[in-house]
Amino acid sequence: MDMNSFSPMMPTSPLSMINQVKFEDEPDLKDLFITVDEPESHVTTIETFITYRIITKTSRGEFDSSEFEVRRRYQDFLWLKGKLEEAHPTLIIPPLPEKFIVKGMVERFNDDFIETRRKALHKFLNRIADHPTLTFNEDFKVFLTAQAWELSSHKKQGPGLLSRMGQTVRAVALSMRGVKSRPEEFMEMNNFIEVFSQKINLIDKISQRIYKEEREYSDEMKEYGPIHILWSASEEDLVDTLKGIASCIDKCCKATEKRMSGLSEALLPVVHEYVLYSEMLMGVMKRRDQIQAELDSKVEALTNKKADTDLLTEEIGKLEDKVECANNALKADWERWRHNMQNDIKSAFTDMAEENIHYYEQCLATWESFLASQTDLHMEEPSEDKPESH
User: Which residues form the PX domain (predicted)?
Assistant: First the structure.
């Protein structure tokens, strides 16, 4: 059966569903399947926006049903990301695609742009679903299951504007203050992020440039086939040869298009996603430092006896627990993220290398076949200098 969907004949009890829903390539059970598809444009007197259909199929007991279908717009995804960061400040939340137009896109509602965003949103939700902690977040569940009016009502239950402003001001003040002594393991983590960010941004720029140059090369090469066909009309002795060259060029053009499709669908999105991850990681480190800075400020106040010592001692105890939880969460998530990152990038470059090898082998075989046919043709032609035998 198709493991990405539930058969109508499948037993509906959670246990029986869990026992039947497995990934062939993974030993663990998977009990949450999410699909983002069918983008739809909405035009109002105020704005124009796109919504995406989200289908969720699950066997988890905390869900009221086994299947849900909702529509969400980009702002809803931003809300979810913000709630996840708020609830889990030192976990590595998957990145969202940029709000504004990506490179090379002219129109925000261009079909290519919408499809690129749809794929990124699909990956965003499935990254969360595969995360051992984020997948059980209550706001994530609401995002997947609530109808539009229910989600709107749920959003209003969050902290008020003044409360959020106060938290932001305090966070900015603590970040400006900095931490006195960041643990060595987090210093190493921060150094890795800085170097990784530089390298992945450079790879992203180079990949985009290669794609642009390949596109220009492909467009230029497409012109040569028709040129050789026109040329053959005025060269009676070279008709077959020129048409053969045109055929070879056409085959190479098709192979180039296929290779470029692999580049744009397999490599470029992966590289750019980790560009966004590098920015996300910097934010995670800042949030960790803010928690530690808050603890440091309370310890300093207690040392200088600037406030009620009993109250400060209680607050310090709570903050120490908070810092320890934040550090442990980040350390566990860090190893998981690095493992996934290495696998994703290795797989993307390996697939691209195999695609390139196949491309060059195909083009080489095309031209070798043509040249061999030309050699055989010339060998069969009688020499003009050789007298005919009687």
Answer: 30-151
